[in-house]
Amino acid sequence: MTQLTVIDLFSGAGGISHGFEQAGFRVVAGIDFERDAVETFKANHKDAIGLEKDLAKLRPRFLTDD
Fold first, then answer.
1. Full-prediction pTM beyond 0.85?
2. Measuring CA to CA, which of 2, 12, 17, 55 is 20 to 30 A from 30?
């Protein structure tokens, strides 16, 4: 079975990401505009990228390799 991948938007410290991991998902990134939240997310999810970004200003292309 293929493991599904998650990007956590408005991630905060990563509580929902933790739930996804417990359910077998792979969390690859969390995005929040609060610096402290992103730092906590990164500490809680060492294999994921934590991004300090304002989603209201973020373009979808930012998340692709193009």
1. no
2. 2
